[in-house]
Design a protein that fits this description.
Number of helices: 4
Largest sheet: 6 strands, antiparallel, barrel
Mean pLDDT: 91
Strand content: 35-45%
Strand order of the largest sheet: 1-2-5-4-3-6
Radius of gyration: 20 Å
Length: 216
């Protein structure tokens, strides 16, 4: 599990590509301070497993499913990437619950400056709009962000100067693709509601509570 607070901007030092898979060599320093083989590190919001490492980089393998579902397939040597280690049990919860499992690829539709803020419009698949609410949370390339507005094609976020500097979202341009992970709590709620509709007992509802004498 991650929190969406980027620890470090790393760099793609090398790529080995297959037809629908790849291996990344990512240069970094901070996230290597306590790394061990098998650790999870979020790379642009994608939970990857450290297969091997040195004092200056780690290597991760990307399987076909991840290759297909994320922007890692577009990666080039020299690209900057957001990095975050998995959250320790005694760590601070600075962002929100982030699984590192990407829901969809979004596209930067507009960028505009207003005072010290950078407003970013991101277009996403229509099926994800149900999970987004103004003032709710969303993860963009592994960065936990607050939704300013939701519209028919996507959503708007606003970046403070610190986020613009400390994560790659501030380097994005119109037309760039980004990894999107919606709030996992919203997905669980939707699942529960769907189960209530499909099961005859209806789950825990006002009607079932009344029928069983719990409320008058």
């Amino acid at each position: 599990m991650f929190t969406g607070i980027v620890e470090e901007i790393g760099m793609v030092n090398a790529i080995t590509r297959g037809s629908s898979c790849m291996q990344l060599v990512i240069g970094c320093s901070k996230v290597l301070s306590d790394v061990t083989k098998g650790d999870s590190i979020s790379v642009n919001g994608v939970c990857l497993t450290v297969s091997t490492y040195t004092a200056t980089h780690f290597i991760a393998d990307i399987m076909p499913e991840t290759f297909k579902a994320t922007t890692l397939s577009y990666m080039k040597r020299g690209n900057a990437v957001n990095l975050e280690r998995a959250m320790p049990a005694n760590g601070r919860f600075g962002g929100h619950i982030v699984s590192g499992h990407i829901d969809s690829i979004g596209k930067i539709a507009d960028l505009r400056k207003k005072e010290n803020a950078l407003y970013v419009d991101i277009h996403i698949d229509d099926s994800l709009l149900i999970y987004l609410v103004p003032k709710g949370s969303v993860t963009v390339d592994g960065t936990s962000l607050t939704i300013i507005n939701v519209f028919d094609k996507g959503f708007t976020i606003s970046l403070i100067p610190t986020t613009q500097i400390d994560s790659i979202i501030g380097q994005r341009r119109i037309g760039d693709y980004v990894n999107i992970e919606c709030d996992i709590l919203a997905k669980y709620i939707e699942r529960i509601l769907m189960k209530q509709k499909t099961h005859s007992d209806g789950g825990l509802t006002m009607e079932s509570l009344t029928m069983n004498g719990f409320i008058g």
